[in-house]
Structure formats: C-alpha cells, structure tokens
Amino acid sequence: MGEKEEAAPVLLQCLESGRVDVICSILSQMKAQTDFHAQVDKLCCKEGTLLHKAVDLDAADSVASLLSGGVNPCVQNSQGKTAYQCCKSEAVRLSFVREALQSINMDK
Predict the structure, then answer these.
(1) pLDDT, tens digit, for every residue of 12-35?
(2) Residues 62-106: tens digit of each pLDDT
(3) By the 8 A CB rule, do 102 and 108 touch?
(4) Which of 1, 44, 62, 106 gives 8 a disulfide partner, CB atoms 3.0 to 4.6 angstroms apart?
(5) Are 57 and 92 in contact (CB under 8 A)?
(6) In angstroms, how far apart are the furthest CA atoms of the chain?
(7) Where are the domains of the chain?
(8) How far apart are CA 36 and CA 18, in angstroms?
(9) Class for domain 8-107, per CATH?
(10) CA quadruple 62, 10, 85, 35: dihedral positive or negative?
(11) Quick check: 50 and 8 in contact, CB under 8 A?
(12) Prediction pTM value
C-alpha cells in the first residue's frame, strides 16, 4: 500500500469480508508511515472509525487485529462514544481486555 493511497476504504472492505489476515498485513506495512494514525483512526464510516466498524460487525478477531496493529481505542465517534462503549457482545469486550493486557505485558 503506497504512502499516498488511502487505507481506510481497503481496510473497511477487509472488515466486511472478514479478512483478518489482510488487515494484519496492511497495518504492518503502514506502521512506519508518518500518517499511520491519521489514516487508521479517522472517522471513515457511519459507525465511526475502523475499530467502531469492527465492533458493529461483532467481529472479535478483527477488533483484536486492529488493536494489536496499533489503532487508537480512545477515538470517539460522532456520538462521543469509543468503540469499547459500543460493544454488544462479551466476545468483543474480551478482545479489548486481552489486547490491553498483552500491551501491558509487553511494556514490562
């Protein structure tokens, strides 16, 4: 994915089709780009961010992939809610908790 190419539309398509492998690959390639957070944390759909969309789809694996790939879980949608606050299922909530615990563990 080139530096000028918009990532959000491609990642949205991957979320909708359940392509967690492609999500991981794209995020890994983008990580070094200076505009990484501007691209992956922006409001890009009616739900909000890519993470909000994954939560709306109730896709725990996609949520985990986005979080481990570096997206910001604190971004709020147009209703002022974070993706975690929009969770409908325990499985998706657990994805947030697991990723948070792994992140804390890696900091040690």
Answers:
(1) 999 999 999 999 999 999 999 999
(2) 999 999 999 999 999 999 999 999 999 999 999 999 988 887 776
(3) no
(4) 44
(5) no
(6) 37
(7) 8-107
(8) 22
(9) mainly alpha
(10) positive
(11) yes
(12) 0.90
